[in-house]
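One such given next:
>
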Amino acid sequence: MAMLSRANWTILAVAVLVAGVGGWLQHQSRLAKVPVGVHVANVGDLRPDLALLDLDGKEHRLSEYRSRRVLLNFWASWCGPCLDEMPALARAQAKFGEKDVIVVGVAMEDPGHVRPFLTSHPVSYPILIGRLDSPSTSLRLGDTSEVLPYSVLLDAEGRVLATRRGALDAATLEQWLAPPGSR
């Protein structure tokens, strides 16, 4: 194995340093969107007990789902990948819903758009309306980029087990929602 020359070691060290600084800056730029004093839940944290309205205007708190694992899926009717994953979420709710798991869709748009959309694209899981104003509901639950779709898996005590930016595939849904011990 050939030894690296001093010049190559220097280039390698500079490249590693630049990559590290770039990663740190990217992380800081994401955190820059978080308003002062707002806690963003990370994996391992207890979820904030947010109050969200359903399509009939009734308030629901995330703590209502305690004792069940909860898959919160943030979506919007204008988001193509969100729409692509909705049938898989409905199948997952049908398959695992009797096993102390619930899928909850959180629409990140005006409720006036959600109701007509769901009339033509019905789902078998509850839909709540997320807050769009700062700090948004998805941001409070770890979506610092505020990208849709975004999903959060909560354990039965309300701790964040996992998060995912982008659409969930069938394998990930199976892994996240299957009863412990059967995975």
